[in-house]
Amino acid sequence: MTLTAQQLEELRRAIETRHAALLEEIRGDVGRARDESYGELAGPVTDPADEASADLIADVDQAEVTRDLGEARALEAAQARLAKGGYGLCTDCGSEIAFERLRVNPVATRCVDCQRVHEKTYAHPAEPRL
Fold this sequence. Notes:
Elements: H1 5-35, H2 38-42, H3 48-84, H4 99-104, H5 112-122
Helix pairs in contact: 1-3
């Protein structure tokens, strides 16, 4: 079943809305990180515990920005697929991705079956076993 024009428009709006909100969040997070100096996070008299807490806060802030940037890039890639006409097609098998899946995850690049195979294959790198 091919996506209808109405469904594509709904997904396009959802992608644009999330992308705009995400960019605003990233701007806020980066601005806040710029305003909060390490000295303010650690306090005027630092000890190892204060330094560790300041490092943790800075690392969490950085991880959030990195995660948000990854999501923003995925949204931009979805917008590009929409513009080129390839949106909603599985990158692995070429079949259509169900509208319900795209509604839940508008950046999905694989159908459910191919995503399941991908996750089983790549989700857990080889781990040493006894």
